[in-house]
Q: What sequence folds into this?
């Protein structure tokens, strides 16, 4: 018994020491020699306490498929044209299929071979023949679809991470959630609108030749040339807030995309208006030169996410691969656009499913009210226990205090963040952790009343109460675990503090308090319990 | 100090019929309230929608805020005062969410800024939950509660006996139903944090039942000559002071959270208070009797 007491005491000392070590960085500034030798993690505050933005985005993976099919259609029609295979109407059906009309069935073998060689990941789903015209229905293969979707999410995640890194947010969280969702947490973000614009922009940069051979108005009215489409230039007047929509008739084929972009920078013109200059890599520069050479005197539309930013006339072939995007930007907008262009476009658009933004002042208020309720609750329970169980109550209070220390230290050690519901979990733990001591003390009282000696009563009290203590803590922890796996951010914080608190309470309320009794009963041989 | 006499011997089992009647009445009221109000009132997390919390640095009348946002032509917009009086803080809630979620919150912000001046106000919180997320969360929350109940049943079954497990879980069902009923009666919305409270009730309320069951099991061995109802009654009496005391400490801290923890924690503390209170009651009056009824319907083959 004596020996086990020594060991238990040692364990207690170690636990207290480790907790203190983990707590120190959160409360005082540690000197440099401390880091590297001792734990230097601080208790991190959740978004609801420090302010910031929480976002859940859904990647529209279907769009990634339809983009791929659109690209294939454009490639395929070029190819068929070059190979002189007579075809008509090649169009996308749904997001992952396309139909193609072959006008002369005698070209079937040639077409089949071409499809097999050049488009191996298109499956022939259907084939109909009617009056010498063959109708092909082709579709993406299931495994390719899965791959494309996966790629859209992974690539999107990577792109968003790059954008956020360039934007400069300290300790952001960017993770994949489920199949097609991305969770983003940006602590300390104040301008949520700007951050959203930066993250959510698809940023697909395209260069298309303006079709000036037709009248835009007629095209809108219905006389659309088959190779062209109408895009708009949406502009907002910063003074009046009015928006204008100017239509442009452009060729459907994309001459060049931002894929070959190398850098993007903010510049200012003579009126101090911000614009973004971009430069292409070697391949991009070559393509750019070719396009400009082939289309001198025509207009080149610079399009970002289907919005025409400008359409300057090509006066001469442009070598060197430089272009600029003007759009009456504010300096901030231009800077963000440059970031977005450098980080690359999202392979598929994203949709915001959930957004929660908390301002820093609200977080401060929450911390204040949280700490206040924690202190009052703690004080009330301390007074109650001391009044009801006298010195034994004080022992339980000491155990409770140690419990609080362990919760905080564990939060720092596991890098779990403290949230407002997390504080509520700590407060609740104050109320629940004394349960074990109440169980033990009530049992000891019962045994004392039955006429047992203090020593025997303490032994019986602890051993008899043990099974109930374990059971009751296990059930609460089971519920907390269910909560943890279902909950989001703040709620997880609650499950975490409650679980740590209850687990620690088995140690503090049972093992630690017992040390005190064993010491006084065996070493000091006291005859009367203050309980 | 002793609040309860050690020699107390209250006849709990004798009042079994009244207790059951009382509980059934409470549960019926809860269900009726839910039916009348067309199901539980879901908050933003489960329903989807937009919330903007704004704090003014000057005196602003709620009517003026209502007036400002009513011009926006948004369906189902509600304005509520938030927090203590005199903080000039309001919550503007909108049920509808469009595809472009961020749009509505911005419109509200801009409208308020142009009406009251950008300097005199601060947007403290914006929450936007899409309908899809809301549905997902609702499903997940329901499953979490059901699975945790099943978890409790299995645990108690494993540690004790099936009859205790069934009694315990029915008690939990009773406590959760009454808590949800109380939320419905007081028109409080069910949000993520309320589900956290409900799950905590599930995990915590069972504790008392376990302590009583533990004592019943102990007494079954000690007093094998006595009948089950008597043993259960003795066990409830023996654990009575502990049941009351521990719930008292929890209720103390809950009151602290309720009054001092701030608006966000308010409803959470309310649910836990209701759950804890009826959890204590059900431990004393319902858990034991249910074991007796279970025994009548499925008599144990061997008496321990």
A:
């Amino acid at each position: 018994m004596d020996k086990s007491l020594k060991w238990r005491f040692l364990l207690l000392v170690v636990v207290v020491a480790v907790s203190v070590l983990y707590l120190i960085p959160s409360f005082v500034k540690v000197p440099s020699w401390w880091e590297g030798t001792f734990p230097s993690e601080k208790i991190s505050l959740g978004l609801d306490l420090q302010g910031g933005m929480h976002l859940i985005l859904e990647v529209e993976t279907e769009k990634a498929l339809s983009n791929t099919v659109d690209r294939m259609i454009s490639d395929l029609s070029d190819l068929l044209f070059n190979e002189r295979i007579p075809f008509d109407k090649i169009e996308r059906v749904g997001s992952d299929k396309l139909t193609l009309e072959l006008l002369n069935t005698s070209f079937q073998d040639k077409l089949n071979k071409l499809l097999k060689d050049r488009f191996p990941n298109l499956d022939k789903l259907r084939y109909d023949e009617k009056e010498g015209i063959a109708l092909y229905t082709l579709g993406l293969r299931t495994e390719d679809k899965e791959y494309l979707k996966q790629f859209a999410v992974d690539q999107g995640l990577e792109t968003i991470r790059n954008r956020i890194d360039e934007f400069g947010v300290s300790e952001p969280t960017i993770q994949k959630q489920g199949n097609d969702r991305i969770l983003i947490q940006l602590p300390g973000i104040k301008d949520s609108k700007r951050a959203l614009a930066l993250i959510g922009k698809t940023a697909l940069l395209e260069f298309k030749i303006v079709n000036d051979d037709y009248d835009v108005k007629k095209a809108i009215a219905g006389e659309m040339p088959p190779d062209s489409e109408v895009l708009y230039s949406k502009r907002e007047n910063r003074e009046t807030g009015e928006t204008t929509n100017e239509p442009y008739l452009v060729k459907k084929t994309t001459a060049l995309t931002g894929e070959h972009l190398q850098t993007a920078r903010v510049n200012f013109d003579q009126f101090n208006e911000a614009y973004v200059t971009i430069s292409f890599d070697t391949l991009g520069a070559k393509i750019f030169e070719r396009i400009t050479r082939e289309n001198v005197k025509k207009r080149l539309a610079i399009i970002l996410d289907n919005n025409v930013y400008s359409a300057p006339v090509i006066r001469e072939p442009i070598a060197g691969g430089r272009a600029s995007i003007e759009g009456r930007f504010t300096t901030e907008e231009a800077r963000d656009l440059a970031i977005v262009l450098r980080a690359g476009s999202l392979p598929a658009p994203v949709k915001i499913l959930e957004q929660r933004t908390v301002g820093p002042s609200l977080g401060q208020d929450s911390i204040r009210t949280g700490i206040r309720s924690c202190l009052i609750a703690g004080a009330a329970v301390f007074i109650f226990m001391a009044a009801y169980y006298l010195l034994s109550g004080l022992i339980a209070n000491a155990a409770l205090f140690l419990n609080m220390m362990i919760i905080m230290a564990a939060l720092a050690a596991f890098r779990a963040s403290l949230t407002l519901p997390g504080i509520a979990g700590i407060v609740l733990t104050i109320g629940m952790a004394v349960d074990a001591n109440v169980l033990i003390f009530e049992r000891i009282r019962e045994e004392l009343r039955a006429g047992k000696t203090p020593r025997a009563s303490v032994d019986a009290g602890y051993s008899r109460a043990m099974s109930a203590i374990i059971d009751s803590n296990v059930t609460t922890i089971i519920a907390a675990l269910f909560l943890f796996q279902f909950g989001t951010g703040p709620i997880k914080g609650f499950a975490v503090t409650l679980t740590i608190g209850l687990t620690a309470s088995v140690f503090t309320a049972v093992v630690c308090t017992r040390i005190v009794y064993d010491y006084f009963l065996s070493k000091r041989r006291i005859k009367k319990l203050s309980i | 100090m002793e609040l309860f006499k050690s020699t107390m011997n209250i006849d709990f089992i004798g009042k079994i019929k009244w207790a059951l009647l009382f509980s059934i009445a409470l549960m019926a009221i809860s269900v009726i309230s839910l039916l009348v109000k067309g199901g539980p009132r879901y908050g933003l997390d489960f329903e989807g929608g937009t919330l903007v919390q704004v704090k003014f640095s000057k005196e602003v009348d709620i009517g003026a805020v209502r007036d400002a946002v009513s011009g926006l032509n948004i369906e189902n917009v509600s304005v509520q005062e938030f927090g203590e009086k005199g903080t000039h803080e309001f919550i503007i809630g909108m049920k509808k969410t469009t595809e472009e979620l961020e749009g509505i919150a911005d419109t509200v912000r801009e409208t308020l800024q142009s009406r009251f001046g950008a300097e005199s106000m601060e947007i403290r919180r914006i929450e936007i939950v899409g309908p899809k997320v809301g549905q997902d969360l609702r499903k997940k929350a329901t499953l979490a509660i059901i699975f945790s109940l099943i978890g409790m049943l299995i645990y108690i079954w494993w540690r004790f006996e099936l009859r205790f497990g069934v009694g315990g879980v029915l008690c939990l069902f009773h406590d959760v139903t009454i808590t949800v009923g109380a939320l419905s009666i007081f028109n409080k919305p069910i949000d993520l944090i309320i589900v956290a409270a409900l799950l905590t009730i599930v995990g915590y309320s069972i504790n008392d039942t376990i302590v009583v069951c533990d004592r019943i099991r102990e007494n079954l061995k000690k007093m094998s000559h006595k009948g089950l109802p008597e043993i259960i009654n003795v066990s409830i009496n023996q654990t009575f002071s502990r049941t009351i005391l521990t719930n008292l400490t929890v209720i103390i801290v809950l009151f602290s959270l309720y009054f001092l923890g701030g608006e966000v924690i308010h409803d959470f503390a309310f649910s836990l208070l209701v759950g804890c209170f009826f959890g204590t009651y059900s431990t004393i009056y319902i858990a034991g009797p249910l074991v007796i009824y279970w025994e009548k319907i499925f008599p144990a083959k061997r008496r321990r």
